[in-house]
Design brief:
Layout: E1 7-9, H1 14-22, E2 27-29, H2 44-60, E3 70-79, E4 82-84, H3 90-100, E5 104-115, E6 118-130, H4 135-143, E7 164-168, H5 171-175, H6 179-188
Parallel strand pairs: 1-2, 1-3
Antiparallel strand pairs: 3-4, 3-5, 5-6, 6-7
Helix pairs in contact: 3-4
Length: about 200
């Protein structure tokens, strides 16, 4: 975007950048370096909200944010009561896909805006049902390398879209940034979206 940034995104995710660009929000990027390890017995909803808040706080307090409002988000796949983070390697990615195959899982996304000395947050929950995925197809998908930087080991906006039989909830939330909730936070803080649309 050619317009000056109205927001600092506390994430290195290209998907979150694309989604903010989609709704016309010029932004800078300052990734947050925090420990994203889940605490013992931490409920998934509490986990994603805590991590998103920690990202926002870490960047909002830095010189790199240059005084801009800071937006942060966290997304987790939850199946069988377990949080599926980004797989560490092929074995973990294959195991995740096997667990998700032919079943419905939850995707939780928290988005936090630090603006004017206040933290505001929203969460979105989506249900995603996968068709059955055979062992050969699971191996072929892992060979594409797409699963390894994705929560739950798949990308709904990428090659992994072929597994999705049904989604109920926020598609953008499954991607990593629920846009309805994000726009609500921005609007309430007086931060414009749809900048330079049609210009």
């Amino acid at each position: 975007m050619s317009a000056p940034p109205v927001l600092c995104l506390a994430s290195a995710s290209p998907r979150r950048r694309e989604l903010l660009t989609q709704i016309g929000v010029p932004h800078s990027v300052v990734p947050a370096a925090i420990d994203e390890t889940a605490r013992p017995f931490e409920p998934p909803h509490d986990y994603v909200l805590r991590v998103a808040r920690a990202k926002a706080e870490a960047v909002a307090g830095s010189a790199a944010a240059r005084g801009l409002p800071v937006l942060a988000a966290d997304t987790s796949v939850v199946a069988g009561g377990r949080i599926f983070a980004k797989p560490a390697g092929p074995e973990e990615a294959l195991a995740m896909l096997e667990s998700l195959s032919g079943a419905t899982h939850r995707v939780l996304s928290a988005v936090v805006l630090a603006a004017g000395g206040t933290l505001r947050s929203r969460t979105a929950e989506s249900l995603v049902r996968f068709r059955a995925i055979g062992a050969e197809e699971r191996r072929a998908y892992c060979a594409t390398l797409e699963p390894y930087d994705k929560a739950g080991g798949y990308a709904i906006q990428g090659l992994g879209a072929v597994f999705v039989a049904e989604i109920r909830g926020s598609y953008s939330g499954v991607m990593g940034l629920p846009l309805c909730e994000t726009a609500e936070l921005l609007r309430n803080a007086g931060i414009p979206y749809w900048n330079n649309i049609g210009a």
